[in-house]
């Protein structure tokens, strides 16, 4: 009974399944091209908070989704996330050398390999989604993930982010950027998880959308707060980078106190959105708390 | 009656449909993020031989596939091809400044934008595939395209290519590289086209595989020949690049005459593979001729 266990036990169980599924989905290092496969595994395995897989599994409790389908959804969305990190870290983008406490892929391997790692991980994400379910539902999942990843979603958000360096954004513009850059994929994680089970009413789907939107923004607000409040070692990536690169953040726009207040407001919004699901929303509720109250 | 028209008329008709479909699939430049969308359109529209869309349409004649489904398959495969060119031209890969007679995307825009253009075009390819057909068949198309694009296909071939610079490859190794780098996507074009119509027998599918494999290799052999025989203006991309970069090619391995002989042998293999389809294979046959006898 998942309802009976605490969040740490539930999280550990999910993460174990997801790590195993990621390991299985990624080509072996003994398979050619070996260096590329080694780099793909380096980019994905042993690291990361796996927020998106956890959200997929938590949303799956709303629709009683079976574990194997949730694994496929969780792996697909995590592969997209991992590819985006590899590309974002490249010298022509954020030019970062540290990620999840390890050298970034282009540092550990080389730039060309990092480029191909990202490209191949994206392909693999869609491949994985076609292996879990049949017919219409799986096709709807592919469509959702493709939309969330593309120029109207994550990649588009990254483009807006690049264009915003050194510029002052309004709060609305900042929100729009984050809704695309990180929000779209977090939303996809929640919806892909829920879609892995029985079909939902439109009201239920709307509630999940509201939840996903609130925690998506909260996640970013907290990221901005941590970027100024935490040191590099604890964060596992270079701290203070946003200010250094003159990037607009919630902290630079609203100040630290108002940013913390906003994160709390968004947490409460997320909880309210899923309150009607009762006990089925236990994990979604706990994850909203975790996302806002995390320290790295 | 497509059988009644000559190849130029048929090609022109297909290309017009494909250009329209590509234009429709790509986000408008008026939609945010505008610069990214402008660069995506720059990378895809007004240029390219559209070999893969033509192959998809030609293979569609074998299974009587309707034009709208063929358009989706053709657009998806061309978007993957276009993304791979944008990423291959980046400084950390082939570092090329000219493509299809125009400055490459990172030259006309910037490196970060070119990276995101490729990423977003890949997502869009999968999105487009989910819009044309229902259920199982579309899902099989997504799987095929994902496999052809990933580390066991195109991206993997590119990795092998990078690793082979300055090394002597055996003919077998060279063939293996090209089978992944360009062959996988050309094969996908043929199969996606055929899958857009009525279902095929295993024998028919095997014939198409043999055809696709032969013209895939022939395409690369001819590319290698043209790289040494044609000047930059005629080629629309930098000529003599392979020798300059000390990349193994069919010409460097077999010599010019033997390479030309090999291309002809492969052309005949392709023709023989689809001979049993009779008149339905007219366009596949003509395209095999076109691919081997082209001058750029």
How would you sum up this structure, described in words?
The structure is a homodimer of 296-residue chains. In chain A, strands 1-2 form a two-stranded antiparallel ribbon. In chain A, helix 2 crosses helix 6, helix 4 packs antiparallel against helix 6 and helix 10 runs parallel beside helix 15. The radius of gyration of chain A is 18 Å and the shape is globular. In chain A, a hairpin with a 2-residue loop joins strand 1 and strand 2. By secondary structure, the first copy, chain A, is mainly α. The first copy, chain A, has a single domain, classed as Farnesyl Diphosphate Synthase, CATH 1.10.600.10. In chain A, 70% of the residues lie in helices and 1% in strands. The two termini of chain A are 30 Å apart. At the A-B interface, helix 2, helix 4, helix 6, helix 7 and helix 8 of A face helix 2, helix 4, helix 6, helix 7 and helix 8 of B.
